[in-house]
Amino acid sequence: MTLHRQIRRTQPGEVRHSITLGPARLYLEDLEAIVETLKDFASTAVEAGATEPPAVRHVTIQAADAVADAVEDLKEATTAELNEVKVYVNGPSAVDLSLGNSHARIEVDAGDPDARALASDLAVFIGSRRSYTPPLRMYPGADLFALALTCAVVAGGAIALLQGSRWTSTWWFAAVSVVLFNIGNLGINYFQARRLGCVEVVPERRKEKTRLSRQVRRDLVVVLVGAVVGGTLAGFLGLWQGMLAK
How far, in Å, CA of 195 to CA of 37, rounded? Predict the structure, then answer.
């Protein structure tokens, strides 16, 4: 089974009840448990006492515009697609579960007590997979800039200290400013994670954690690029500072 690319059509619905999720990290077995729970919910009768057979409701797994036949198919999804994972039940009393590093929530029919109970149970389950590292990936561009700036300022301060330059105090003032900037950046990330939700979807099982995942490899590349950029900038600034000292 493979991923199928398609555009999901939304339908105007009833008043929705929403719960923000995370920060948390979910593996494939966690998603399988969620999907099974949603299948049980979808298999229940739509209307009690209805004269016609209940409408058929399906559970759909979607990564961006790609639809998966099974949770295992998410291994084929790209990093961008894994940041927009949706699991939803169509039809009456629809359930929408959205998972990603920059947003995560579950929405159900506010007038359906069973759906609201389901949303609460899923929120508790996802909350039990709590992790504080996904918010660090909410804004990778800003984090890369902060990393490069930190490497540059700290390296430059070390060069100034070794050279005994008159610019040493200025460099260390900049270093402290960058540290405070990073603390503020982390604070914003965690505030946004609580406000918008943040759930990282890992396309592997926990027993497969022994090898480097795609996300870990990506993080290592970000660190290396930041270190190279920061070190290069610090080198140029060190040369410029040495020329001024002369």
Answer: 26
Q: Which of 54, 47, 38, 43 is nearest to 95 (CA)?
A: 38
88 alpha-carbon distance from chain centroid: 19
Give me the residue spans of the domains in the chain.
4-127, 134-245
What is the model's pTM? 0.68
Examine residue 135 and say whether the peptide bond preceding it is cis (omega within 30 degrees of 0). Answer: no
| pLDDT tens over the chain, length 246 residues | 566 555 444 455 568 899 999 899 999 999 999 999 999 998 874 444 444 445 557 899 999 889 999 999 999 999 889 989 999 998 777 899 999 988 899 999 888 899 999 999 999 999 999 988 776 666 666 667 777 777 777 777 666 666 666 656 676 677 777 778 778 877 877 887 788 889 999 999 988 765 555 555 555 555 555 555 555 555 555 545 555 555
Plot region of 82 (φ>0 → left; ψ -120 to 50 → alpha; else → beta): alpha
